Amino acid sequence: MGDTANRDRPHGSADDQTLRIHNLSWAPEKTRAPILDQVTCSFENGFFYGIIGPNGSGKTSLIRHILRFLDVSQGTVTLDGKNIEEYRRVDLAREIAFVPQNTQIEVPFSVYDIIMMGRTPYQNRFGGTSETDRDAVQYAMDLTDCAYLKDQEFTLLSGGEAQRVIAARAIAQDTPWLILDEPISNLDIRHQFGIMDTLKMLNKARGRTIISVLHDVNLASAYCDRLILMKDGRIFAEGPTEDTLTLDNLRSVYGMEFSVILHPETGKKYFVPNQFA
Amino acid sequence: MKRERSILFHIAWLAPALFLCIVGAASLGSAHLSFFDSLRIIGSGIPGLHSIVSTDGIADVYTKIVWQVRMPRILLAGLVGCGLSVVGATFQGLFRNSLADPHILGISSGAAVGATIAIISGISFHFLGLSGICAAAFAGAVVTAFLVYRISSIGSKLPVMNILLTGIAVSAMFSALISLLMTLNRDQIDKVYMWTLGSFSSASKTRVLFLLFFVVAATAGLMLYARKLNVIATGDETAESLGIDTSRVKKVLIVLASLLVAACVSVSGIIGFVGLIIPHCTRIISGPKHERLLPLSCFAGAIFMILCDTLARTLAAPSEIPVGVITSVFGAPFFIFLLQRSKRKLVR
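YS: structure for the whole thing
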């Protein structure tokens, strides 16, 4: 586990711990227009990445390929130099944890049971839960403010509580990579910042690489080291947040005019759509 | 949510309850025995207890009735109840559908087609000591399971909706085929119809051993995947992101469960409702985790089926009521009662 990490080169050589996507194309049906069109990008270990772009730009499809929910039909996805198709699922689950957009679960498991499922990749058929498992679950609950929900039925939680519990499950999975698909869409503003702060902490203090699809440009601006802007199944821009999040890029990607205002106290940039006039 | 009790606690009362059911069921019938005589006869037949329990004063004929007539039937009913319940619980988790039951994949309809053809053609062969009808039903079920599986898989994936809809379609098709066969062979309608309603009247030691093998092997196999089933019940992709090869686990579970259904249906006909309600009832005490649900469903299913079959053969003696009628007539109100009492814990 990494301690406080250097921002630029957090973990040894970046070369051997990289998630590379090369020329990835995908269409749900052969006759339809591709959802992903020759996507090439890479995620280096130790950074906090945001993927932003309008609906239907291919953000979720990109993630689904990385997680092998979809077979890579054209192009390659490699993790640490090895093609992800060659990983056993259980080994991949020890590398990458995932927080999905849809957190609906119909079976009335308790919150604790759900979070404990994050430990599945480390458990065998018969063994019970180990001390490490229980510690990891407790740690994840503390970080996501879920401990008080522990004994409740997951199915009875509100959308935001459910999202935090699912985030806790991914944190309990204790992987170097954490991929999130709009993890804060159902959260109230306090918990939005709570989860983003937690992710930032996991990133900075424990060296986890975070890749998150986000819809809120300003949250992306505040938390992400690097951004990937997607449009029409392609990478429109990628790089350090300050370089990629420009008024020109936003206009091109979203087809909307934005203005920048500066926060009166911190002086940080805040992007406001001009429709707010 | 209350702290859950250990599974051993539940087995510690369910196992004796099952035993008492068996003893009670063995004492009832046209030749009436007292509960304690029944207990002594059964006790004396259990290896190891033979020297302690004596059957002095009980006529030999009763021992014969209990061990050769009633016990095979009781044990067969228990095993079928157990098998159908375990499969029901597995399918409900695997398909994430509270309405799933063992017959949902059309396997039972396939068995019925096999049995119908055997009945109508009047063939009489024996296979592994099983009657022609039974063997044909088993073959029909296995072929159907294979068919449904092949039709519904897309590449290496097995989408839940696909397999459910395929099962329902195949089931409808086979039901129609059976109706057609019955219409064309009116003299056999009675026999075919009674087969499909389900009965344990042709129980035999061979059938008990045949089914015992499948119940033990399949249940043990399903138990190996109980924890993975928990994760799959929360979603296929979630399970994949947690390192489970969902497609493979699904295939293994469907094959095991299908074989078990095939074996159950081939020896008893199509007994409805048990595989649907017993898992739901069991969840009240076991909770949703399959490593608890599956074994406890075994006991609950066995007890329920033995009770139902005992009613089936005694209520209107000397004639019999089809056991499938009993499972629904008595099971449905009981289920509705539980549903009302603990709405939250059952289907939502």
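YS: worth flagging: The radius of gyration of chain B is 20 Å.
IM: good catch. Also Chain B touches chain A at residues 1, 93, 96, 224, 227-228, 230-231, 233-235, 237-238, 240-245, 287-289, 345, 348 (CB under 8 Å).
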